[in-house]
Amino acid sequence: MFWRPESPRWLVQHDRQDEALEILAKLHGNGDINNGFVRSEFEEIRVVVNLEKSSAAPSYLSLMVGKDYRRRTGLGMGLQCMKQLSGANIFLHYASKVFTHTGREGPTASIRASGIGSAVLLAGM
After folding, report:
1. C-alpha closest to that of 97 among 83, 112, 115, 118
2. Which residues contact 97 (CB under 8 A, 6 or more apart)?
3. CA distances from 43 to 9, 35, 57 (A)
4. pLDDT given for residue 20 in this prediction
5. What does each C-alpha distance from 57 to 14, 52, 98 come to in angstroms?
6. What predicted TM-score, i.e. pTM, was given to this entire model?
7. S-S: 109 plus which of 87, 98, 99, 119, CB 3.0-4.6 Å?
């Protein structure tokens, strides 16, 4: 994606504030860097980046046993387990065999299996 501009947040993290402000102006202010919304968005990004730099990132151990992160980590792990157990993987593995049993053979079965498998994955996201 070489033709896309860098994200303003990334530019602020790498001390390229002027470029970040220009991109925000193109996105939200029709090129006007003095637009109120552009300025407030830039300040918000700058404050959050500075806050993240000043605080330490949590360790993996603290994500598992730390009181502040325990609920979030448990929810994320639970959702991932439920997604895996929902049955979509079974369909993805056996779709070509199912299509073969219905009379479709060769590349047609594979293409349909791939198409339906992709649709199931997209719907599951």
Report:
1. 112
2. none
3. 11, 12, 22
4. 94
5. 18, 8, 47
6. 0.51
7. 99
